[in-house]
Amino acid sequence: MLFQIKRVADGKVVMWTENEDFIYDAEIIKEMNRAGYMAYLDGKIYRPGRKNKKEEV
Q1: How far is 19 from 50, CA to CA, in rounded Å?
Q2: DSSP assignment, residue 40?
Q3: 22 by DSSP, 3-state: which?
Q4: Measured between alpha carbons, how far is 1 from 39 in angstroms, rounded to an integer?
Q5: I want to staple 24 with a disulfide (CB 3.0 to 4.6 A). Which of 12, 28, 44, 48 is the partner?
Q6: Backbone φ, ψ for residue 32 (5° rounding)
Q7: How far apart are CA 55 and CA 37, in angstroms?
Q8: Is the pTM of this model over 0.90?
Q9: Each residue's pLDDT expressed in tens, for the chain with a length of 57 residues
Q10: d(Cα 10, Cα 23) in Å, to the nearest integer?
């Protein structure tokens, strides 16, 4: 499992982890989206509140 935060403007990875304990909570991810960053889980866009791999486990 690979969680990443990428800057939308240039696609640069600014944060990544393979440890589920370090994935940000839903509110932080929403604020990051508003600030121009996107969260990814295993290469797919991660949107809190929707059915994602992390929430299924």
Answers
A1: 20
A2: E
A3: helix
A4: 13
A5: 28
A6: -65, -40
A7: 21
A8: no
A9: 999 999 999 999 999 999 999 999 999 999 999 999 999 999 999 998 766 655 554
A10: 22
